[in-house]
């Protein structure tokens, strides 16, 4: 919500105290209570590949790293309810799911909607949706959006039967390595003999999404590898603050201005 302010100042021409109304100079923000989802935007098609391309007439507000959630997209109900990070935005034409699914969704989508997810969970570390797990001596897990996990953290893996790799369900895993480029974590579970992981197909809806839920820290691993043993500490990342409008004569200032601010808090005891 934009708020106005009053500026009192003395200019160099006289000793008079001048007053200036600063309309819309302050914007209150509370990241814990903001609008989580944008208004729905129409989707005309989604492609049947491991990085689906979404066709739409409006990409307003989207960019690489934006997170979207789909609803009512015909033929592909299996992509609903998952927060997907995107890249390769073609203005008012299309955007692409950023991190590859284990397998293609199984059908071409037609019609429906996407919404921009404006807020992440305020609490770190966060749970994340899983879109792929490799069969390897140390399994590598890919997530649908930037995961934020660090080496040494422990995660509980939820992998319903519709994803194929049932042996991974309810496993407690330690993150041993992180790739920010691929948005993956390597864990201390040998999945080489497990059933292959696959993204659920449209015909198995409804199902519970595969996910990783942070549950603690492997202290022994963290100490041995000189890692932060408190990386699993729960942190509320929400803020309550104020955005200062920039520009000449405004509280945010102009280029090369030096500004000093002191914040305070007022109250009213009127009933």
Total domain units: 3
- What is the CATH level 1 assignment of the largest domain? Mainly Beta
How many helix segments? Answer: 1
Structural class: mainly beta
Structural overview:
The protein is mainly beta and about 270 residues long. It folds into three domains: about 1-30 and about 240-265, no CATH class; about 40-115, Elongation Factor Tu (Ef-tu), domain 3 (Beta Barrel); about 125-235, Elongation Factor Tu (Ef-tu), domain 3, CATH 2.40.30.180. It contains one helix and 18 strands. The strands form four sheets. It has a six-stranded antiparallel barrel. Strand 14 and strand 15 (about 185) form a beta hairpin. The longest helix has 6 residues, at about 220-225. The radius of gyration is 24 Å and the shape is globular. The model has no long low-confidence stretch (mean pLDDT about 90).
Produce a short descriptive summary.
The protein has 271 residues and is mainly β.
Keywords for this structure?
single chain; mainly beta; 3 domains; 6-stranded antiparallel beta barrel; 1 helix; 2% helix
Question: How does the SSE layout of this entry go?
Answer:
Elements lengths: L1 E8 L8 E13 L10 E6 L6 E4 L10 E5 L12 E7 L3 E4 L11 E2 L2 E4 L6 E2 L3 E6 L6 E4 L9 E6 L13 E8 L4 E4 L23 E7 L1 H6 L10 E2 L3 E5 L27
Antiparallel strand pairs: 1-2, 2-18, 3-4, 3-8, 3-9, 4-7, 5-6, 5-9, 6-7, 10-17, 11-12, 11-16, 12-15, 13-14, 13-16, 14-15
């Amino acid at each position: 919500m934009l708020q106005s302010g009053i500026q009192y100042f003395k200019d160099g021409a006289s000793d008079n105290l001048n007053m200036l109304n600063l309309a819309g100079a302050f914007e209150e923000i509370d990241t814990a209570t903001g609008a989580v989802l944008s208004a729905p935007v129409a989707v005309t098609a989604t492609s049947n590949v491991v990085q689906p391309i979404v066709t739409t007439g409006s990409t307003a507000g989207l960019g690489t790293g934006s997170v979207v959630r789909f609803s009512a997209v015909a033929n592909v109900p299996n992509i609903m309810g998952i927060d997907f990070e995107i890249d390769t935005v073609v203005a008012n034409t299309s955007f692409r799911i950023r991190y590859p699914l284990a397998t293609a969704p199984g059908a071409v989508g037609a019609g429906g909607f996407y919404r921009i997810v404006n807020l992440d969970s305020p609490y770190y570390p966060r749970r994340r949706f899983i879109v792929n797990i490799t069969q390897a001596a140390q399994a590598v897990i890919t997530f649908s959006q930037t995961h934020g996990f660090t080496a040494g953290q422990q995660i509980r893996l939820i992998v319903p039967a519709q994803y194929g790799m049932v042996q991974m369900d309810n496993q407690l895993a330690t993150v041993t390595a992180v790739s920010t480029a691929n948005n993956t974590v390597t864990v201390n579970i040998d999945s080489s003999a497990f059933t292959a992981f696959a993204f659920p197909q449209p015909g198995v809806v409804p199902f519970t999404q595969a996910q990783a839920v942070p549950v603690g820290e492997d202290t022994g691993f963290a100490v041995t590898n000189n890692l932060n043993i408190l990386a699993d500490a729960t942190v509320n990342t929400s803020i309550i603050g104020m955005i200062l409008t920039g520009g000449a004569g405004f509280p945010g200032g102009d280029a090369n201005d030096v500004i000093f601010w002191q914040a305070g808090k007022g109250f009213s005891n009127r009933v």
